[in-house]
Design goal:
The protein has 6 helices and 2 strands. The longest helix is centred in the middle third of the chain and has 22 residues. The protein has a two-stranded antiparallel sheet with strand order 1-2. The chain starts with a helix and ends with a helix. It folds into 2 domains: about 55 residues, no CATH class; about 60 residues, no CATH class. The chain has about 140 residues and is mostly helical.
Length: about 140
Amino acid sequence: MQARCEEVREQLSAWLDGELAESGRALVAAHLDSCAACRRELAQFAALNAALADLPVPEPSGLAERVLARVQRRRRYGWQNLALAASLVMGMVLGGALARDFYPRSVSGTGAEIAALEDFHDFPQGSLGAILVSYQSEEGNGT
């Protein structure tokens, strides 16, 4: 019975808070009906919960105002949004232009072409690098 008491005592706080599933509640209730020691433990938990619920919660003065002052978003002007978007586009273009120089071009009978996509195993499927390579090969074909 001792092992069962330990299991139930671990669940008493959750049982008191109504956090146990129906099956768990039924097992704990059945055990409490037959075990005086666990009922005493439950009574102590209940007394502790009641005592803690009656304690005042100290609130630092001006806490809400300080939190709201930090959380309030700063107004972003239209030119800042435009500059951010332009920076992102420029980074993508420059990154793509630099990425094509990472791999050598293969020379075939039809002229200089970018190596086949199989040579670009570093680029994950659907990534910007793979897309850039597919555009480069289309340009090489004259399309």
